[in-house]
Amino acid sequence: MAETSNTPHVLKSQANWDALYFYQKSDVIYQLAFAFCERFIHLYKDRTRDQVIQAARSCKQNIVEGLADGVASTEMQLKLLNVARASLKELREDFEDYIKSRHLQFFVSGEPRYADMLNYCRYHNRLSDYEPFFAQWTDEQMCNYAITLCHFIDRMMMSFLKKLEQEFITEGGIKERMHRARTGYRQQQDERLKQLEAEFPRLKQALAEAQAEAAKWKAAFEDLKQRALKMYYSKEEEIKRLKEQLGEEKL
Description:
Blueprint: H1 21-40, H2 48-69, H3 74-101, H4 112-123, H5 127-130, H6 139-171, H7 174-250
Helix pairs in contact: 1-2, 1-6, 2-3, 3-6, 4-6
């Protein structure tokens, strides 16, 4: 039996993570962190370099893995996205520590540069919006923009996680979806069987009536056939007799 639109599904639709703003910003934060480390953190003398890059990468990659795993498991998706958030918080802490340890300035509310930064980070999501500045910004600017992006990503991910949480509460996990799908399929099979069993006596009666009608038509056909053959042979005999009579007269 073909699957109907009412059949429960086990697998969920694959999320297009590239269209999600928090993923786009996570791509920006990874590339920004890498460019920042290339410019301002020594390759061998400061272990923070590897930690910053790995934290940024972990954030982005766990978003991708979490959204991919969400096809089968909402539970795993929630866990991996929360791992991404944890990596993001670690990254934000590293940028804040950099500002503090170098005695740089945090951009704060009320400053024009803070308002410009906040507005830019709010409405720009793609790497192409930020990449031209990676070679121009000072380390102070890069840190402040990175911290602000971390805040935006975290807020967006929290909204997304709350939505997933509600879906998990209402729809359950993979085992519950499998149970509903299997139960729904069996119910459809049972309903179809009952429908066929209810229709079977009527179909059986209709077949019997059709067979009886066919038997009557067959008997009528045989009778018509016999009468036609009898008439045919009778005419054939008459023709033969007339030909014989005409032959005798000619003699």
